[in-house]
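User: what does the whole thing look like in 3D?
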Amino acid sequence: MCGILGVQLLNGERVDRTLLNTMIGQLHHRGPDATGFYIDGPVGFAHARLSIIDLNGGHQPMHNEDQTVWITFNGEIFNYIELRNDLIQKGHRFRTQSDTEVIIHLYEEKGEDCVQYLNGQWAFAIWDKKRDKLFMSRDRLGVRPLFYSLTTRGLLFGSEIKSLLAYPGLTREIDLQALDQLFTFWVTLPPRTIFKGISELPPGHSLVSERGQVTIRSYWNIEYNSSNDSMSEQETAATLLELLTDATKIRLRSDVPVGAYLSGGLDSTVITALIKKTSVSRLKTFSISFEDKEFDERGYQQEASSFLQTDHHEVRCSAQDIGRVFPDVIWHTEKPILRTAPAPLFLLSKLVREQGYKVVLTGEGSDEMLGGYDIFKEAKIRKFWAAFPESKIRPLLLKRLYPYLENIQAQSPAYLKAFFHVRREDRLSPFFSHLPRWELTSKLKMFFSEDVKSELKESHAYDELRELLPSNYSKWDGFSQAQFLETMYLLPGYILSSQGDRMAMAHSVEGRFPFLDHRVVEFAAKIPPAMKMKVLNEKYILKQAVGDLVPVSIKKRPKQPYRAPDIKSFIGGDTNAVRHEYVEELLSADRIQKDGIFNPNTVQSLLEKARKGRAIGVKDNMAFVGILSTQLIVDQFINRVIGRRQDGTAA
Amino acid sequence: MEQQHERELRQYVIDNFLFGQGGSELKNDDSFMERGIVDSTGVLELVAFLEEQFQVKVEDEDLIPANLDSINNLLLYLKKKQQSLKKRNPFIRVEGLAESA
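Assistant: Here's the predicted 3D structure for the full assembly of 752 residues, as structure tokens:
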């Protein structure tokens, strides 16, 4: 796990090492253990290393036997031992025990197809000297980040955008189309990022730069096909458990100790149980608890920890803590966010690091692959109800869906019906499952300034997404379509990045995700939806698969999505005052006017409502966090030459 | 009096849900839900406002769009509430509502 960076100049000019050094300096948090450089005329690589496998031999950039193939690599290849043995059989000579060297030899053997054989999480670039070819790749599901920019002088790439922005003369400007997407889908659709001219290599894609030509192609697709339902429920559960056990086992490969996150939910408990099953040592587990009871899951965390006998550590998180670290959080997410939920994970990775740990396994991916999210359930109820619109009973199921949301519980059937009403045109939409979420989020665009609104007049976020859908999308059932949208967009664009890689790597911690082993993902895509969600019982097949490995109470508990206090993190206390100076500064009418993205009057009205303690709705909370985080992006990445705000104190 | 209620309701909806925007375009019979002005929390905010501003008690069974989903519906609802109060106790004087009786 590391930070990678590279430059390929077009005019034949030699890459300047001092410049590489400045750029890689921005990624120090990703790799504090060592820094390495490789320059071959117009091509230059840099690497910031976090040592995890082959602590003494794994330095990078690394090369093959005759130094004609060079790599800078961020991530882990979990099946490297098996691949290495195969390659040795074929006559390759290895100098190290690292997984990095395995990619080099596999590339020599298979060329660009090498990625098909990798089981892991990666972002890497290979310089093939003989062919004069730069080859870059990102893992199937986008666990590890990779950004690039094509400038008139050449190609730049790096693990985080801040490393690219350190390149002199690069434009720093918000891409308004991307902003429009973010205020619709919660994410930007790759290759777009929130910065104009800076692109994200989409998950499951490779990039080749050869003779001045850049080609980007997909090497992996998820295919939902439940026609293979010859497998019984029992066989499906057994196969799933077998795959998950192996996925966990190979993710324990490391030369440093490995811990686990334990959220109190089913998924992380399953992973912790599987670790305990395969390894005998006392496992350290980590969790977040909240002062605010509304968000706290401490009881379940302790139950899981005592059932699985782990050495458990927790970080207690208050609303003030979230507000305090928020500028740092946005420095790392490098994009606006609509919820503060990443912030506690920033504090959690700090705890992990302080405990001397660099690697944690977590339960991410289970909800997307096995149908855990409320959005799947909500879509199912809406569809069920649309089939009999006059039913008075059917909409009441929606109350069961959100037991933790008081405002839904308080609604009359007439209002429930009105809120979740299925319009005729919605039933035919390819985005049926996501329309309520996206339409609610789109309402936040009312806070945009008149200039931004007029700039976006012709822009339709749905159209760009429609273009990206695979050709067989329309043939899939609605449940699979919803899974696809979550897996391809929210997962890499928010869960694994803003809430995942970026929060963990802020404190040099690597996350590993057994549910995202491609064998698990490919198998899960073939499980019939009815086994994933049996009536309204989410992740049913997983619960069947894990049997008594996890406590019954955890299997039976109502699902609670991970959330954190939003507006309350910034405004609160007895007087409902703004808690942090930077919030006053960035949301002031002058500042909003000057930065030009939002309307100063509407922002002031929202602030006023929040100060009165009346901004309690989801929309108000998302608007507040979205506006503040966008202002922090502008402040730290556009207005300043060297960006980071100094009022964050947690780093 | 009804005019004053109308002004207060409009101002509240514009400040609280529209954050000061597009007030002149808001018609009295615009559906709050169709225009995306009010969501599930919005309904509860609205109820809190009615109870605080007009001293009415909004019963659970009153929580229906026919009562709350536009300025006109709200005005009608307030009128109805006030009449039923009077019917129950002709001597009661409810702040803000009594005069329109």
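In plain terms: The CA atoms of residues 98 and 216 of chain A lie 28 Å apart. The interface with chain B takes residues 405, 407-408, 410-412, 414-415, 418-419, 439-440, 443, 446-447, 599, 601-603, 605-606, 609, 614, 616-620 of chain A (CB under 8 Å).
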